[in-house]
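User: I'm writing a short report section on ligand binding and want a predicted complex to refer to. Could you take this sequence and pyridoxal-5'-phosphate and write out the structure as C-alpha coordinates? A short remark afterwards would be nice.
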Amino acid sequence: MAKNETLQDQLKRIPSVHKLLDTEMAKGLMDAFSWGKVLDSVREFLDELREDITAGARKAETFSPETFFRRVRSHLEVGRRRNLRRVINATGIVLHTNLGRAPLAEAAIDAVAEAAGYSNLELDLAGGKRGSRYAHVEGLLCRLTGAEAALAVNNNAAAVTLALSSFARDGEVVLSRGELVEIGGSFRIPEVIAHSGARLVEVGATNKTHIADYERAIGAATRVLMKVHPSNYRIVGFTGAPTRKSLVELAREHGLMVIEDLGSGALVDLTGYGLPYETTAMEVLEAGVDVLTFSGDKLLGGPQAGILLGKARYIDRMKKNQLLRALRIDKLSLAALEATLRLYEEPERLAEALPLLRMLTQDAEALQARARRVCAELAGLQGVTLEIEDGCGYAGGGALPDASIPTKLVAVRSERHAPDALAAALRAEEVPLIGRIADDAFVMDMRTVADAEVAVVVENLRRALA
Ligand SMILES: *Cc1c(COP(=O)(O)O)cnc(C)c1O
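Assistant: Sure. The C-alpha coordinates for the complex follow:
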Protein backbone atom coordinates (compact mmCIF):
# COMPACT_ATOMS: atom_id res chain seq x y z
CA MET A 1 0.00 0.00 0.00
CA ALA A 2 1.36 3.41 -0.91
CA LYS A 3 1.96 5.57 2.08
CA ASN A 4 -1.38 7.27 2.52
CA GLU A 5 -3.41 4.82 0.49
CA THR A 6 -6.53 3.80 2.34
CA LEU A 7 -8.28 0.49 2.13
CA GLN A 8 -10.91 2.22 -0.01
CA ASP A 9 -8.23 3.24 -2.52
CA GLN A 10 -6.91 -0.32 -2.64
CA LEU A 11 -10.37 -1.71 -3.31
CA LYS A 12 -10.91 0.85 -6.08
CA ARG A 13 -7.92 -0.57 -7.96
CA ILE A 14 -9.75 -3.84 -8.52
CA PRO A 15 -11.28 -3.95 -12.00
CA SER A 16 -15.07 -3.90 -12.18
CA VAL A 17 -17.14 -6.92 -13.20
CA HIS A 18 -18.19 -5.01 -16.29
CA LYS A 19 -14.61 -4.33 -17.31
CA LEU A 20 -13.51 -7.90 -16.78
CA LEU A 21 -16.41 -9.30 -18.79
CA ASP A 22 -15.44 -7.04 -21.67
CA THR A 23 -12.05 -8.72 -22.11
CA GLU A 24 -11.09 -11.27 -24.75
CA MET A 25 -10.44 -13.81 -21.98
CA ALA A 26 -14.02 -13.49 -20.73
CA LYS A 27 -15.35 -13.81 -24.27
CA GLY A 28 -13.34 -16.98 -24.74
CA LEU A 29 -14.94 -18.40 -21.62
CA MET A 30 -18.41 -17.47 -22.82
CA ASP A 31 -17.89 -19.59 -25.92
CA ALA A 32 -17.44 -22.61 -23.68
CA PHE A 33 -19.75 -21.79 -20.75
CA SER A 34 -23.01 -19.90 -20.36
CA TRP A 35 -22.92 -16.14 -19.78
CA GLY A 36 -24.64 -16.53 -16.43
CA LYS A 37 -22.12 -19.07 -15.15
CA VAL A 38 -19.16 -16.92 -16.22
CA LEU A 39 -20.73 -13.87 -14.56
CA ASP A 40 -21.39 -15.77 -11.31
CA SER A 41 -17.84 -17.09 -11.15
CA VAL A 42 -16.26 -13.72 -11.94
CA ARG A 43 -18.35 -12.14 -9.15
CA GLU A 44 -17.46 -14.91 -6.73
CA PHE A 45 -13.73 -14.61 -7.36
CA LEU A 46 -13.84 -10.78 -7.15
CA ASP A 47 -15.66 -11.03 -3.80
CA GLU A 48 -12.95 -13.35 -2.59
CA LEU A 49 -10.27 -10.92 -3.74
CA ARG A 50 -11.99 -8.03 -1.92
CA GLU A 51 -12.16 -10.08 1.27
CA ASP A 52 -8.47 -10.93 1.00
CA ILE A 53 -7.53 -7.26 0.49
CA THR A 54 -9.75 -6.16 3.37
CA ALA A 55 -8.12 -8.76 5.60
CA GLY A 56 -4.71 -7.54 4.55
CA ALA A 57 -3.85 -10.92 3.03
CA ARG A 58 -3.33 -9.56 -0.50
CA LYS A 59 -2.63 -6.35 -2.32
CA ALA A 60 -4.55 -5.05 -5.32
CA GLU A 61 -1.29 -4.68 -7.25
CA THR A 62 -0.91 -8.45 -7.38
CA PHE A 63 -4.10 -8.83 -9.44
CA SER A 64 -3.41 -10.39 -12.82
CA PRO A 65 -6.29 -10.89 -15.26
CA GLU A 66 -4.56 -13.95 -16.75
CA THR A 67 -4.31 -15.73 -13.39
CA PHE A 68 -7.80 -14.56 -12.49
CA PHE A 69 -9.38 -16.04 -15.61
CA ARG A 70 -7.33 -19.22 -15.37
CA ARG A 71 -8.86 -19.79 -11.94
CA VAL A 72 -12.35 -18.92 -13.22
CA ARG A 73 -11.95 -21.41 -16.08
CA SER A 74 -10.77 -24.22 -13.88
CA HIS A 75 -13.61 -23.50 -11.42
CA LEU A 76 -16.13 -23.67 -14.27
CA GLU A 77 -14.62 -26.87 -15.63
CA VAL A 78 -14.75 -28.58 -12.24
CA GLY A 79 -18.36 -27.41 -11.82
CA ARG A 80 -19.28 -29.02 -15.11
CA ARG A 81 -17.93 -32.44 -14.18
CA ARG A 82 -20.63 -34.99 -13.66
CA ASN A 83 -21.03 -36.26 -10.11
CA LEU A 84 -21.14 -39.85 -11.30
CA ARG A 85 -18.24 -40.42 -13.64
CA ARG A 86 -15.56 -42.86 -14.60
CA VAL A 87 -12.61 -43.54 -12.30
CA ILE A 88 -9.50 -45.63 -12.68
CA ASN A 89 -9.61 -48.60 -10.34
CA ALA A 90 -6.08 -49.25 -9.13
CA THR A 91 -7.23 -51.06 -5.98
CA GLY A 92 -6.84 -54.51 -7.50
CA ILE A 93 -10.32 -55.41 -6.24
CA VAL A 94 -12.00 -56.48 -9.45
CA LEU A 95 -15.56 -56.33 -8.07
CA HIS A 96 -15.32 -53.18 -5.95
CA THR A 97 -18.77 -52.28 -4.61
CA ASN A 98 -17.84 -48.59 -4.17
CA LEU A 99 -16.56 -48.45 -7.73
CA GLY A 100 -19.63 -49.99 -9.35
CA ARG A 101 -18.74 -53.71 -9.15
CA ALA A 102 -18.32 -55.43 -12.53
CA PRO A 103 -17.16 -53.29 -15.47
CA LEU A 104 -19.35 -54.04 -18.48
CA ALA A 105 -18.14 -55.80 -21.60
CA GLU A 106 -17.96 -53.75 -24.78
CA ALA A 107 -20.94 -55.63 -26.21
CA ALA A 108 -22.96 -54.75 -23.10
CA ILE A 109 -22.01 -51.08 -23.34
CA ASP A 110 -23.13 -51.03 -26.97
CA ALA A 111 -26.40 -52.68 -26.01
CA VAL A 112 -27.04 -50.05 -23.31
CA ALA A 113 -26.44 -47.25 -25.81
CA GLU A 114 -28.81 -48.87 -28.30
CA ALA A 115 -31.57 -49.46 -25.75
CA ALA A 116 -31.31 -45.88 -24.50
CA GLY A 117 -33.60 -44.74 -27.30
CA TYR A 118 -36.81 -46.50 -28.29
CA SER A 119 -36.65 -50.27 -28.13
CA ASN A 120 -38.94 -53.30 -28.26
CA LEU A 121 -38.75 -53.48 -24.45
CA GLU A 122 -42.34 -54.63 -24.11
CA LEU A 123 -43.33 -55.22 -27.70
CA ASP A 124 -43.54 -58.62 -29.32
CA LEU A 125 -42.10 -57.84 -32.74
CA ALA A 126 -43.45 -61.00 -34.37
CA GLY A 127 -47.05 -60.57 -33.31
CA GLY A 128 -47.04 -56.78 -32.98
CA LYS A 129 -48.68 -57.06 -29.56
CA ARG A 130 -47.63 -56.25 -26.06
CA GLY A 131 -44.67 -58.37 -24.98
CA SER A 132 -42.83 -59.01 -21.73
CA ARG A 133 -39.53 -57.37 -20.84
CA TYR A 134 -38.57 -60.58 -19.07
CA ALA A 135 -38.67 -62.59 -22.29
CA HIS A 136 -35.46 -60.94 -23.55
CA VAL A 137 -33.30 -62.93 -21.13
CA GLU A 138 -35.40 -65.87 -19.96
CA GLY A 139 -34.59 -68.20 -22.86
CA LEU A 140 -30.90 -67.35 -22.67
CA LEU A 141 -30.73 -68.00 -18.93
CA CYS A 142 -32.51 -71.33 -19.34
CA ARG A 143 -30.21 -72.42 -22.18
CA LEU A 144 -27.08 -71.46 -20.25
CA THR A 145 -28.05 -73.05 -16.94
CA GLY A 146 -30.54 -75.77 -17.75
CA ALA A 147 -33.18 -74.08 -15.58
CA GLU A 148 -36.84 -74.64 -16.44
CA ALA A 149 -37.60 -70.94 -16.10
CA ALA A 150 -35.89 -67.67 -15.21
CA LEU A 151 -36.61 -64.09 -14.22
CA ALA A 152 -34.40 -61.00 -13.91
CA VAL A 153 -35.11 -58.22 -11.39
CA ASN A 154 -33.41 -55.08 -10.07
CA ASN A 155 -30.75 -56.78 -7.93
CA ASN A 156 -30.19 -59.88 -5.85
CA ALA A 157 -31.69 -58.27 -2.75
CA ALA A 158 -34.87 -57.78 -4.81
CA ALA A 159 -34.70 -61.38 -6.05
CA VAL A 160 -34.48 -62.78 -2.50
CA THR A 161 -37.29 -60.47 -1.35
CA LEU A 162 -39.51 -61.50 -4.26
CA ALA A 163 -38.89 -65.20 -3.69
CA LEU A 164 -39.52 -65.08 0.06
CA SER A 165 -42.55 -62.85 -0.20
CA SER A 166 -44.00 -65.13 -2.89
CA PHE A 167 -43.49 -68.38 -1.00
CA ALA A 168 -42.95 -67.73 2.70
CA ARG A 169 -45.21 -64.77 3.59
CA ASP A 170 -46.90 -65.39 6.95
CA GLY A 171 -44.94 -68.61 7.27
CA GLU A 172 -41.56 -69.73 8.53
CA VAL A 173 -38.17 -69.89 6.82
CA VAL A 174 -35.63 -72.28 8.29
CA LEU A 175 -32.01 -71.16 7.99
CA SER A 176 -28.71 -72.23 9.55
CA ARG A 177 -27.07 -69.87 12.08
CA GLY A 178 -23.92 -70.20 10.00
CA GLU A 179 -25.67 -68.41 7.11
CA LEU A 180 -27.13 -65.30 8.79
CA VAL A 181 -25.16 -63.12 6.42
CA GLU A 182 -24.79 -59.36 6.20
CA ILE A 183 -23.55 -57.96 2.91
CA GLY A 184 -22.29 -54.42 2.43
CA GLY A 185 -23.97 -53.15 5.58
CA SER A 186 -27.47 -52.86 4.16
CA PHE A 187 -28.42 -56.41 3.20
CA ARG A 188 -28.98 -58.61 6.21
CA ILE A 189 -30.65 -61.92 5.65
CA PRO A 190 -32.69 -61.83 8.91
CA GLU A 191 -34.05 -58.39 8.00
CA VAL A 192 -34.80 -59.35 4.41
CA ILE A 193 -36.78 -62.33 5.69
CA ALA A 194 -38.68 -60.07 8.11
CA HIS A 195 -39.45 -57.54 5.34
CA SER A 196 -40.82 -60.34 3.20
CA GLY A 197 -43.42 -61.00 5.86
CA ALA A 198 -41.88 -64.32 6.86
CA ARG A 199 -40.55 -65.54 10.20
CA LEU A 200 -36.96 -66.70 10.52
CA VAL A 201 -36.33 -69.93 12.39
CA GLU A 202 -32.61 -70.25 13.11
CA VAL A 203 -31.14 -73.72 13.43
CA GLY A 204 -27.79 -75.26 14.28
CA ALA A 205 -24.71 -73.44 15.48
CA THR A 206 -22.46 -70.91 13.79
CA ASN A 207 -19.94 -73.54 12.73
CA LYS A 208 -22.05 -76.71 12.45
CA THR A 209 -25.58 -77.45 11.37
CA HIS A 210 -26.93 -80.99 10.89
CA ILE A 211 -29.82 -82.17 8.76
CA ALA A 212 -31.56 -83.20 12.01
CA ASP A 213 -31.50 -79.54 13.13
CA TYR A 214 -33.54 -78.59 10.06
CA GLU A 215 -35.85 -81.55 10.57
CA ARG A 216 -36.62 -80.65 14.18
CA ALA A 217 -37.46 -77.07 13.18
CA ILE A 218 -40.10 -78.10 10.64
CA GLY A 219 -43.65 -77.44 11.79
CA ALA A 220 -47.09 -76.58 10.46
CA ALA A 221 -46.03 -73.00 9.60
CA THR A 222 -42.81 -73.94 7.76
CA ARG A 223 -42.77 -72.97 4.10
CA VAL A 224 -39.14 -72.79 3.01
CA LEU A 225 -35.78 -74.34 3.86
CA MET A 226 -33.28 -71.67 2.93
CA LYS A 227 -29.62 -71.72 2.06
CA VAL A 228 -27.47 -68.59 1.81
CA HIS A 229 -23.98 -68.37 0.38
CA PRO A 230 -21.68 -66.94 3.08
CA SER A 231 -20.31 -64.59 0.44
CA ASN A 232 -17.93 -62.32 2.25
CA TYR A 233 -16.63 -64.57 5.02
CA ARG A 234 -15.56 -68.11 5.70
CA ILE A 235 -16.04 -70.17 8.80
CA VAL A 236 -12.96 -72.37 9.01
CA GLY A 237 -11.97 -75.23 11.27
CA PHE A 238 -14.54 -77.58 12.81
CA THR A 239 -17.40 -76.85 10.44
CA GLY A 240 -20.16 -78.70 8.69
CA ALA A 241 -23.46 -78.29 6.92
CA PRO A 242 -25.73 -80.86 5.28
CA THR A 243 -25.33 -81.29 1.56
CA ARG A 244 -27.68 -79.44 -0.74
CA LYS A 245 -29.07 -82.82 -1.83
CA SER A 246 -29.99 -83.89 1.69
CA LEU A 247 -31.68 -80.53 2.30
CA VAL A 248 -33.69 -81.00 -0.91
CA GLU A 249 -34.67 -84.55 0.13
CA LEU A 250 -35.83 -83.34 3.53
CA ALA A 251 -37.89 -80.58 1.89
CA ARG A 252 -39.51 -83.12 -0.47
CA GLU A 253 -40.48 -85.38 2.44
CA HIS A 254 -42.31 -82.50 4.08
CA GLY A 255 -43.71 -80.84 0.95
CA LEU A 256 -41.52 -77.75 1.40
CA MET A 257 -39.47 -75.62 -0.95
CA VAL A 258 -35.73 -74.99 -0.94
CA ILE A 259 -34.65 -71.47 -1.86
CA GLU A 260 -30.96 -70.65 -2.20
CA ASP A 261 -29.37 -67.19 -2.26
CA LEU A 262 -26.17 -67.96 -4.12
CA GLY A 263 -24.82 -64.40 -3.87
CA SER A 264 -22.23 -64.17 -6.60
CA GLY A 265 -23.47 -66.97 -8.79
CA ALA A 266 -20.89 -68.17 -11.28
CA LEU A 267 -22.19 -69.44 -14.63
CA VAL A 268 -18.94 -71.21 -15.49
CA ASP A 269 -16.52 -73.37 -13.56
CA LEU A 270 -13.83 -70.86 -12.62
CA THR A 271 -11.23 -73.54 -11.98
CA GLY A 272 -11.14 -73.98 -15.76
CA TYR A 273 -9.57 -70.50 -15.85
CA GLY A 274 -7.05 -71.23 -13.14
CA LEU A 275 -9.20 -69.48 -10.52
CA PRO A 276 -10.45 -70.75 -7.17
CA TYR A 277 -13.57 -72.88 -7.10
CA GLU A 278 -16.95 -71.15 -6.76
CA THR A 279 -20.36 -72.87 -6.70
CA THR A 280 -22.08 -72.58 -10.08
CA ALA A 281 -25.78 -71.99 -10.67
CA MET A 282 -25.92 -75.30 -12.59
CA GLU A 283 -24.71 -77.30 -9.61
CA VAL A 284 -27.39 -75.78 -7.40
CA LEU A 285 -30.12 -76.56 -9.94
CA GLU A 286 -28.86 -80.11 -10.41
CA ALA A 287 -29.15 -80.70 -6.68
CA GLY A 288 -32.86 -79.96 -7.02
CA VAL A 289 -33.07 -76.52 -5.37
CA ASP A 290 -36.47 -75.04 -6.31
CA VAL A 291 -35.52 -71.38 -6.66
CA LEU A 292 -32.07 -69.92 -6.75
CA THR A 293 -31.04 -66.23 -6.80
CA PHE A 294 -27.80 -64.38 -7.56
CA SER A 295 -26.42 -60.99 -8.62
CA GLY A 296 -25.82 -59.82 -12.17
CA ASP A 297 -22.84 -57.63 -11.32
CA LYS A 298 -20.66 -59.99 -9.32
CA LEU A 299 -18.95 -63.01 -10.90
CA LEU A 300 -21.39 -62.95 -13.81
CA GLY A 301 -19.65 -59.73 -14.88
CA GLY A 302 -22.77 -57.88 -15.99
CA PRO A 303 -24.96 -54.99 -14.84
CA GLN A 304 -26.71 -54.60 -11.50
CA ALA A 305 -29.46 -57.20 -11.63
CA GLY A 306 -30.92 -60.05 -9.65
CA ILE A 307 -31.44 -63.38 -11.37
CA LEU A 308 -33.96 -66.00 -10.32
CA LEU A 309 -33.76 -69.51 -11.72
CA GLY A 310 -35.95 -72.47 -10.97
CA LYS A 311 -39.02 -74.56 -11.62
CA ALA A 312 -41.47 -73.01 -14.07
CA ARG A 313 -44.40 -73.14 -11.65
CA TYR A 314 -42.48 -71.11 -9.08
CA ILE A 315 -41.09 -68.57 -11.53
CA ASP A 316 -44.62 -68.11 -12.92
CA ARG A 317 -45.93 -67.37 -9.45
CA MET A 318 -43.26 -64.73 -8.94
CA LYS A 319 -44.12 -63.16 -12.30
CA LYS A 320 -47.67 -62.71 -10.99
CA ASN A 321 -46.61 -61.19 -7.66
CA GLN A 322 -47.57 -57.47 -7.59
CA LEU A 323 -44.26 -56.77 -5.87
CA LEU A 324 -42.43 -57.55 -9.11
CA ARG A 325 -43.60 -54.20 -10.54
CA ALA A 326 -41.59 -52.40 -7.85
CA LEU A 327 -38.56 -54.65 -8.21
CA ARG A 328 -38.40 -54.86 -11.98
CA ILE A 329 -35.23 -54.49 -13.98
CA ASP A 330 -34.88 -51.31 -16.06
CA LYS A 331 -34.31 -51.33 -19.81
CA LEU A 332 -30.64 -50.29 -19.70
CA SER A 333 -29.67 -53.02 -17.24
CA LEU A 334 -31.74 -55.52 -19.17
CA ALA A 335 -29.93 -54.64 -22.39
CA ALA A 336 -26.56 -55.04 -20.69
CA LEU A 337 -27.63 -58.29 -19.08
CA GLU A 338 -28.76 -59.83 -22.35
CA ALA A 339 -25.52 -58.83 -24.10
CA THR A 340 -23.44 -60.19 -21.20
CA LEU A 341 -25.29 -63.50 -21.17
CA ARG A 342 -24.79 -63.86 -24.93
CA LEU A 343 -21.03 -63.79 -24.32
CA TYR A 344 -21.44 -66.98 -22.27
CA GLU A 345 -22.80 -68.69 -25.37
CA GLU A 346 -19.28 -68.52 -26.81
CA PRO A 347 -17.26 -69.96 -23.93
CA GLU A 348 -14.00 -70.10 -25.89
CA ARG A 349 -14.05 -66.30 -26.21
CA LEU A 350 -15.41 -65.50 -22.77
CA ALA A 351 -12.08 -64.86 -21.01
CA GLU A 352 -11.24 -62.20 -23.57
CA ALA A 353 -14.70 -60.66 -24.03
CA LEU A 354 -15.69 -60.35 -20.36
CA PRO A 355 -13.56 -57.69 -18.61
CA LEU A 356 -14.04 -59.35 -15.23
CA LEU A 357 -12.60 -62.64 -16.41
CA ARG A 358 -9.96 -60.90 -18.52
CA MET A 359 -8.65 -59.09 -15.44
CA LEU A 360 -8.85 -62.10 -13.15
CA THR A 361 -6.89 -64.28 -15.56
CA GLN A 362 -4.04 -61.89 -16.43
CA ASP A 363 -0.69 -63.51 -15.83
CA ALA A 364 2.24 -62.08 -13.87
CA GLU A 365 4.11 -61.07 -17.03
CA ALA A 366 1.28 -58.90 -18.30
CA LEU A 367 0.96 -57.22 -14.91
CA GLN A 368 4.71 -56.75 -14.63
CA ALA A 369 4.88 -55.22 -18.11
CA ARG A 370 2.18 -52.70 -17.24
CA ALA A 371 3.89 -51.83 -13.97
CA ARG A 372 7.17 -51.30 -15.84
CA ARG A 373 5.47 -48.97 -18.31
CA VAL A 374 4.09 -46.80 -15.49
CA CYS A 375 7.50 -46.66 -13.78
CA ALA A 376 9.38 -45.93 -17.00
CA GLU A 377 7.05 -43.06 -17.92
CA LEU A 378 7.53 -41.46 -14.52
CA ALA A 379 11.25 -42.09 -14.15
CA GLY A 380 13.39 -39.15 -13.12
CA LEU A 381 10.82 -37.21 -11.08
CA GLN A 382 12.67 -35.36 -8.29
CA GLY A 383 12.17 -36.81 -4.82
CA VAL A 384 9.92 -39.60 -6.06
CA THR A 385 10.60 -43.32 -5.98
CA LEU A 386 8.55 -45.92 -7.81
CA GLU A 387 8.91 -49.57 -7.03
CA ILE A 388 7.31 -52.69 -8.44
CA GLU A 389 6.24 -55.02 -5.64
CA ASP A 390 4.47 -58.35 -5.36
CA GLY A 391 1.06 -58.11 -3.77
CA CYS A 392 -2.28 -59.83 -3.17
CA GLY A 393 -5.51 -58.86 -4.89
CA TYR A 394 -9.08 -60.03 -4.27
CA ALA A 395 -12.05 -60.64 -6.50
CA GLY A 396 -14.25 -58.57 -4.17
CA GLY A 397 -18.04 -58.24 -4.24
CA GLY A 398 -18.33 -61.09 -1.77
CA ALA A 399 -16.86 -63.45 -4.33
CA LEU A 400 -13.98 -65.79 -3.52
CA PRO A 401 -13.34 -63.97 -0.21
CA ASP A 402 -10.52 -66.13 1.07
CA ALA A 403 -8.76 -66.49 -2.26
CA SER A 404 -6.02 -63.91 -2.58
CA ILE A 405 -4.73 -63.56 -6.10
CA PRO A 406 -1.01 -62.80 -6.58
CA THR A 407 -0.52 -59.49 -8.35
CA LYS A 408 1.98 -56.73 -9.19
CA LEU A 409 1.88 -53.35 -7.49
CA VAL A 410 3.47 -50.01 -8.20
CA ALA A 411 4.34 -48.28 -4.92
CA VAL A 412 4.82 -44.51 -5.13
CA ARG A 413 6.75 -42.70 -2.42
CA SER A 414 7.36 -38.96 -2.56
CA GLU A 415 9.55 -36.84 -0.30
CA ARG A 416 7.17 -33.92 -0.63
CA HIS A 417 3.77 -35.64 -0.55
CA ALA A 418 2.38 -37.82 2.22
CA PRO A 419 0.58 -40.89 0.80
CA ASP A 420 -2.86 -39.72 1.97
CA ALA A 421 -2.33 -36.25 0.46
CA LEU A 422 -1.26 -37.89 -2.79
CA ALA A 423 -4.31 -40.17 -2.71
CA ALA A 424 -6.57 -37.13 -2.15
CA ALA A 425 -4.97 -35.20 -5.03
CA LEU A 426 -5.44 -38.20 -7.33
CA ARG A 427 -9.10 -38.47 -6.34
CA ALA A 428 -9.60 -34.80 -7.25
CA GLU A 429 -8.49 -35.34 -10.86
CA GLU A 430 -10.94 -35.16 -13.73
CA VAL A 431 -10.60 -38.93 -14.05
CA PRO A 432 -9.97 -39.86 -10.41
CA LEU A 433 -7.36 -42.52 -9.75
CA ILE A 434 -8.24 -44.75 -6.82
CA GLY A 435 -5.45 -46.72 -5.17
CA ARG A 436 -4.51 -47.90 -1.69
CA ILE A 437 -2.15 -46.76 1.02
CA ALA A 438 0.23 -49.37 2.38
CA ASP A 439 3.66 -49.23 4.01
CA ASP A 440 3.78 -45.45 3.78
CA ALA A 441 3.27 -45.52 0.02
CA PHE A 442 0.52 -44.85 -2.44
CA VAL A 443 0.01 -48.24 -4.05
CA MET A 444 -1.55 -49.12 -7.40
CA ASP A 445 -2.50 -52.67 -8.35
CA MET A 446 -1.98 -53.25 -12.06
CA ARG A 447 -4.64 -55.99 -12.32
CA THR A 448 -7.58 -53.60 -12.49
CA VAL A 449 -5.84 -50.93 -14.61
CA ALA A 450 -6.36 -51.37 -18.35
CA ASP A 451 -3.49 -50.84 -20.79
CA ALA A 452 -5.52 -48.02 -22.33
CA GLU A 453 -5.63 -46.29 -18.93
CA VAL A 454 -1.87 -46.21 -18.36
CA ALA A 455 -1.52 -42.83 -20.10
CA VAL A 456 -4.11 -41.25 -17.77
CA VAL A 457 -2.52 -42.87 -14.71
CA VAL A 458 0.82 -41.38 -15.71
CA GLU A 459 -0.63 -37.92 -16.43
CA ASN A 460 -2.52 -37.84 -13.14
CA LEU A 461 0.54 -38.89 -11.16
CA ARG A 462 2.73 -36.34 -12.93
CA ARG A 463 0.32 -33.55 -11.97
CA ALA A 464 -0.22 -34.77 -8.41
CA LEU A 465 3.53 -35.19 -7.82
CA ALA A 466 4.48 -31.81 -9.35
C1 LIG B 1 -24.16 -59.69 -2.77
C2 LIG B 1 -25.14 -60.54 -2.12
C3 LIG B 1 -26.47 -60.11 -1.97
C4 LIG B 1 -26.92 -58.78 -2.44
O1 LIG B 1 -26.92 -58.73 -3.84
P1 LIG B 1 -27.22 -57.36 -4.62
O2 LIG B 1 -27.19 -57.76 -6.06
O3 LIG B 1 -26.16 -56.40 -4.22
O4 LIG B 1 -28.57 -56.90 -4.17
C5 LIG B 1 -27.35 -60.96 -1.34
N1 LIG B 1 -26.97 -62.16 -0.88
C6 LIG B 1 -25.70 -62.61 -1.00
C7 LIG B 1 -25.34 -63.95 -0.44
C8 LIG B 1 -24.75 -61.80 -1.63
O5 LIG B 1 -23.49 -62.25 -1.76
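A remark for your report: The chain has a mean pLDDT of 94. The CA atoms of residues 74 and 80 lie 10 Å apart.
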